Amino acid sequence: MIIKLFLGIVIIISSTMVGIAIANRYAMRPAQLRALQSGINILQTEILYFSSPLPEALHKVSKAISDDISIIFNRASKGLMEKKRYTINEVWTRAVEDSMDTTALTEEDKVILINFGLGLGNSDKESQVRHFQLIMEQIKKQEVKAEEIRKKNEKLYKSLGVLGGMAITVLIL
Amino acid sequence: MNIDLIFKIAAIGILVSVLNQVLMRAGREEMAMMTTLAGIVVVLMMVINLISNLFENVKTIFQLY
């Protein structure tokens, strides 16, 4: 009897944690998109006013923003500093694709980010500004969308975890 | 025949109704429908033996072989 009780508690706790983990993924995405926006803002300042070269600028950005997103900038900056004759496009695309697993970003965000890399560092300052603005706008839209999705799903998955655990416990014990 | 089964079914009923409410509130009507159906099926699996027992008993009592 006591063993059954113990097992039931274990099942409920673990499924609750699964629910919270899934809910966290939805909570992470808007935060990471916001971090991405501030990162791109910093990069814009670096390029416009300090005129620092891209590897340095990317490195500075990666130090200024939160961990999950800074991986992308960090990888890109390292890729450029190694000087293996890759273009910024290739390095950026690779950095984004390698970092997809550790961030909460989706395919749509990935496409926007890769597009961002395509226009990076291949024109004069004015068209760079336009490019930055375009990308910022797109990311902002994604953030609004992500926020909506979060509102819809976060609570749902939390309570679904607890209730699912209870259901499993009742069924098998 | 033990009384536990009744409590088990009652617990499933409560859980399914709460799940239903949660899913409805989140705007997932079709998933709420599916959980309700799943609950019905699970409970049916539990009681189907008892129901068949009941029919057997009725048959024996009235000698309908």
Low-confidence stretches of chain B: none
How large is the count of helical segments of chain A? 6
Q: How much of the residues of chain B is beta strand, in percent?
A: under 5%
Tertiary shape of chain A: elongated
Which class best fits the helix and strand makeup of chain B? mainly alpha
What assembly state would you assign to the polypeptide chains in this entry? Answer: heterodimer
Number of strands of chain A: 0
Distance between the termini of chain A: 10 Å
CA-atom Rg of chain A in angstroms: 21 Å
Helical amount among residues of chain A, as a percent range? over 70%
Q: Biggest interface, which chains?
A: A-B, 11 and 13 residues
Radius of gyration of chain B: 17 Å
Average pLDDT figure of chain A: 86
How far do the termini of chain B sit from each other? 25 Å
Low-confidence stretches of chain A: none
Strand coverage percent of chain A:
under 5%
How many strands in all of chain B?
0
What general form of chain B does the structure show? elongated
Order of helices and strands of chain B: HH
Question: For the report, how would you describe the main beta sheet of chain A?
Answer: none
What number of domains of chain B? 1
